[in-house]
Amino acid sequence: MHINGELQRSCSIPLSSVKPTDQIVTIEGLSPNADHPVQKAWLALDVPQCGYCQSGQIMAAAALLKRKPKPTDAEIDEAMTNICRCGTYQRIRAAVHNAAGRA
């Protein structure tokens, strides 16, 4: 999820650390119709296999592209820290590049 525009792992953020004034965006709030460039790229390139990590991957990619609109492979690899048990890292990287071209 994003808290005040910064990527945060929702599994490690205690609710008590979130203030009522914080702006929180989850995968559901990224776009109203799943039409965010990252979501479109994920679908276009058939990135997920099991889907377990994909919400986190998509949110990390969206945060990266907000900071770096045209990231290099190295920048993508550094930013995408979620573990994909299916090993779709090459498709994830391709989808980030695809989304960068759509944004």
Give a structural overview.
By secondary structure, this protein is mainly alpha-helical. It is built from 4 helices and 3 strands. The chain has helices spanning 37-44, 54-67, 73-79, 89-102, and strands at residues 2-3, 6-7, 24-25. Strands 2-1-3 form a 3-stranded antiparallel β-sheet, with helices on one face. Strand 1 and strand 2 (6-7) form a beta hairpin. The longest helix has 14 residues, at 54-67. The chain is globular. It starts with a strand and ends with a helix. The mean pLDDT is 93.
What key attributes describe this structure?
globular, 3 strands, 103 residues, mainly alpha
Quick overview of this protein structure:
It is built from four helices and three strands. It has about 100 residues and is mostly helical. Helix 1 packs across helix 4 and helix 2 crosses helix 4 (about 90-100).
